């Protein structure tokens, strides 16, 4: 009896110790398994970015605001364009999925957890916009979620909120493309690319950048041609390569912005004037990557052909 009790005790001790070892092993691997994209990105990626994200938001049938016929169709075309450009994650939010709660959750939680420091992030929005005066009496624009009102900023996504999000975002390059009249960014348009920047645009991709392209300015409307947005039509043409104005094979966000400003303003006879701004950093987002090049400084060109 005593020997049986001793064996039983030893067996229980063995099982207990085995469970402890398994628990210790499980705890030791949890940090590795639960690493977010941002935590896991060390060193430089093989290409320009570790991962490319396109967040597509299209709101057509508002609960408390007039509908925007064709907004979802436009947004889906933009989503497909970014898939063709090779973006790894194209996440779409339409109508009820673009509620105030969901959009705040997206900006507060999902993107800060998922997007890493060597990633590229593009956010496209098609929907209503409004504006409100801040404490200094300045007009600030805001995005209107699915369940919000145009003339009430309570549930909105304000310019200040977006700016704070971009400051917290780890992404190397962030581009906001807004098919709405959103203004109040307190910044100036980016300067033209230098000769070196035009010849070797990859040098600009090493530096952080937050850029914004808005479809219209204060007091203007984002015009529609039938059930399609004039801005989106031009955007899709630009993303197909037409916005590469210098023909070097690289399509940069600054080039796309300049293209949209010129084309949309001309098509609307000056009634719709998009804006293209860099609100943080001094880099530039690459949308289409061309051939990598190196700028070699040597003797000045001598003949007319060399000068050309």
Based on the model shown, name its key terms:
13 strands, Rossmann fold, alpha/beta, globular, 9 helices, 6-stranded mixed β-sheet, single chain
Relative strand content: 15-25%
Q: What is the percent of helical residues? A: 25-40%
Give unreliable regions as ranges: 22-37, 193-197, 294-300
CATH structural architecture: 3-Layer(aba) Sandwich
State the end-to-end distance: 103 Å
How many helical stretches?
9
Give the rounded overall mean pLDDT.
82
- The order of strands across the largest sheet is 2-1-3-7-8-12
CATH class membership: Alpha Beta
* CATH topology (level 3) name: Rossmann fold
Largest sheet: 6 strands, mixed
Count of individual beta strands: 13
Spell the H/E element sequence.
HHEHEHEEEEHEHEEEHEHEEH
SSE class = alpha/beta
Domain count, please report it: 1
Shape: globular
Using the CA coordinates, give the radius of gyration: 25 Å
Please write out the topology.
Blueprint: H1 2-33, H2 37-40, E1 52-58, H3 71-84, E2 89-94, H4 100-114, E3 120-126, E4 129-133, E5 139-143, E6 157-158, H5 159-168, E7 173-179, H6 195-199, E8 209-214, E9 224-225, E10 228-229, H7 230-242, E11 251-252, H8 253-267, E12 275-281, E13 286-288, H9 304-307
Parallel strand pairs: 1-2, 1-3, 3-7, 7-8
Antiparallel strand pairs: 4-5, 5-6, 8-12, 9-10, 11-13
Helix pairs in contact: 3-7, 7-8
């Amino acid at each position: 009896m005593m020997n049986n009790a001793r064996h039983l005790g030893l067996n229980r001790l063995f099982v207990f110790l085995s469970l402890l070892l398994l628990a210790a092993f499980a705890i030791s691997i949890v940090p590795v398994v639960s690493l977010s994209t941002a935590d896991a990105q060390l060193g430089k990626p093989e290409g320009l970015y570790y991962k490319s994200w396109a967040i597509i938001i299209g709101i057509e049938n508002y609960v408390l605001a007039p509908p925007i016929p064709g907004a979802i169709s436009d947004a889906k075309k933009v989503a497909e364009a970014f898939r063709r450009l090779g973006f790894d994650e194209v996440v779409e939010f339409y109508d009820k999925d673009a509620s105030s709660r969901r959009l705040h959750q997206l900006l507060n939680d999902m993107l800060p957890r998922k997007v890493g420091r060597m990633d590229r992030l593009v956010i496209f929005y098609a929907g209503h916009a409004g504006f409100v005066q801040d404490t200094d009496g300045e007009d600030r624009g805001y995005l209107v979620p699915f369940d919000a009102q145009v003339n009430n900023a309570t549930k909105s996504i304000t310019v200040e909120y977006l700016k704070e999000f971009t400051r917290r975002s780890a992404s190397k390059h962030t581009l906001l493309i807004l098919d709405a009249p959103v203004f109040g960014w307190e910044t100036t348009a980016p300067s033209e690319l230098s000769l070196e920047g035009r010849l070797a645009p990859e040098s600009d991709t090493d530096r952080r950048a937050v850029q914004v392209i808005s479809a219209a300015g204060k007091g203007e409307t984002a015009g529609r041609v039938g059930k399609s947005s004039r801005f989106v039509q031009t955007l899709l043409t630009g993303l197909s390569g037409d916005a590469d104005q210098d023909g070097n094979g690289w399509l940069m966000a600054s080039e796309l912005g300049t293209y949209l400003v010129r084309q949309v303003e001309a098509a609307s006879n000056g009634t719709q004037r998009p804006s293209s701004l860099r609100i943080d950093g001094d880099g530039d987002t690459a949308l289409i990557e061309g051939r990598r090049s190196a700028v070699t400084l040597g003797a000045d060109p001598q003949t007319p052909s060399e000068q050309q």
